[in-house]
């Protein structure tokens, strides 16, 4: 478990599954993803996140508000392999996905900064990266507020079909 001023980043719990499924089926939250996720896809994603955290001690952690204990999404780190198709891979990626009603409170930035600090202090990563579709300005603002800078290495994200409106991504980085 990792804490910030207002957040707890922790391992996933059974009660997170239905809330995360709702988050992944929300058109507003998933606006910059090629499609919404089914309950089965969402549950499988939590399974992957949970196993990674159990095996490595870090990953995309469940996020809860300290003030209420409410689960609001995920923030954390993921290792992208060399064959991922992402520039500069292999790399450590910072990522987040929060319920829309919690946007605009600085939670993503607060959690991202703490995850980046974890990557530098615990994983001794030389750099941490984040990426998003070019159109996703709010996510880019989180990256900037977390201290990251645009590498200028825009790329076609390999998991999005060629010609899709969200195919082109920007890549941000912060170094130790």
- Count every beta strand, where a strand is a DSSP E run of 2 or more residues: 9
The CATH superfamily turns out to be Gcn5-related N-acetyltransferase (GNAT)
Radius of gyration: 15 Å
> Helices and strands: which structural class?
alpha+beta
Largest sheet: 5 strands, antiparallel
Number of domains: 1
Could you tell me the strand content as a percent range? 25-35%
The name of the CATH architecture is 3-Layer(aba) Sandwich
Provide structural commentary.
With 176 residues, the protein is an alpha+beta fold. The chain has one domain: Aminopeptidase. It is built from 4 helices and 9 strands; from the N terminus they run ββααβββαβαβββ. The chain has helices at residues 16-24, 39-56, 107-121, 137-145; strands at 2-3, 7-10, 60-65, 71-80, 91-98, 127-133, 149-150, 155-156, 168-175. The strands form 2 sheets. Strands 1-2-3-4-5 form a 5-stranded antiparallel sheet, sandwiched between helices. Strands 6, 7, 8 and 9 form a 4-stranded antiparallel sheet that branches. A hairpin with a 5-residue loop joins strand 3 (60-65) and strand 4 (71-80). Helix 1 packs across helix 2 (39-56). It is globular, with a radius of gyration of 15 Å. The relative contact order is 0.16. The mean pLDDT is 97.
């Amino acid at each position: 478990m990792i804490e910030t001023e207002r957040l707890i980043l922790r391992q996933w719990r059974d009660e997170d599954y239905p809330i995360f499924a709702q988050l992944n089926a929300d058109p507003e939250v998933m606006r910059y993803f090629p499609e919404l996720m089914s309950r089965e896809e969402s549950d499988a994603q939590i399974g992957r996140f949970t196993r990674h955290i159990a095996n490595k001690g870090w990953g995309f952690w469940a996020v809860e508000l300290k003030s209420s204990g409410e689960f609001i999404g995920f923030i954390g780190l993921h290792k992208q392999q060399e064959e991922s198709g992402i520039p500069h891979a292999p790399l450590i990626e910072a990522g987040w996905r929060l319920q829309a009603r919690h946007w605009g409170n600085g939670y993503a930035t607060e959690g991202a900064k703490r995850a980046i600090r974890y990557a530098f202090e615990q994983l001794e990563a030389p750099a941490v990266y984040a990426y998003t579709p070019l159109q996703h300005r709010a996510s880019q603002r989180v990256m900037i507020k977390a201290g990251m800078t645009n590498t200028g290495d825009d790329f076609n994200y390999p998991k999005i079909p060629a010609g899709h409106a969200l195919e082109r991504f920007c890549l941000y980085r912060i170094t130790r």
